[in-house]
Amino acid sequence: MASQMDGNDRLGRFEEIVLLALVRLRENAYGVPIRREIAERTGRDVSFGAVYTTLERLERKGYVSSRVGEPTPERGGRAKRYFRIEAPGRRALNSSRETIARMGGLAHVG
Amino acid sequence: MWDSARASWVERRKLRAERRRTRRNLRRAQSEIYVGLLHLTIAIRNHPDCEPENLAKHVEARRLVSSALAITIAELRSLRNFIGLRPRWHYSNLERDMVPPIGACFLLDLILPKADREVIPDDLVEEFTTSILGEYGVRRARFWFWTQTVRTIATRNPVCRWALVGGLARIGEWILRKMGS
Prior knowledge:
By secondary structure, chain A is α+β, with helices and mostly antiparallel strands. Chain A has helices at residues 2-9, 13-25, 31-42, 48-61, 87-106, and strands spanning 64-72, 78-85. Chain B is flat.
């Protein structure tokens, strides 16, 4: 059971980046700022499709929750879909970062 | 007499060069002015103080920007007539360029799954108008929109993804066949 949990908790590189973007953006995390944050900080021009696919996967795992916001006039009366990182997501992110930190001590290259 | 003719020729040449420079600068400036004013309008609209009680102030600010835009267009037109610049494109075309490509929007609405149709096209349009247009200029921004559309469709629609993979595999196969023969 424990090993199964560990397997499910493992995050991909892009999943980790998306979760970190959600942590940074807090309440204002919807498609546009998430993509912009990732593009600015990693220098990668990611597509909205890739961002939403990852967010959906994280939502299925229970790491992220989403809600539809109020309709806004600047989007022609359509609403934004806001995302929020949940407690299991934070735990998975912390665990993933701790693993990297632990490995960092051993993998001293150069 | 020779000297005066030469001086007049030099003067005319200088004027022609000046006119060419002005035309070039004007062509460059008019799209930048448009994008700048468009951004100002968006900034006013998205300002956090845009609450109902401040609405009159914002409406007034937007009216001022609009009138500035109208005056700028009139000034540019008269300047263009004065220096004899033939329009490379009409302002209506420029205004058309400020909105994302209709074909791409249509494709997104047609192909994306229903749940995505509510969110992704609007995100793309928002990014296009608030950031990409000012950063890249009209042509590159429109190209960006098309690439994002294709990438998003390829990621979000499984049928399209497999069609794309199949198409790429066939192209690869064809190239290998050609190289082999």
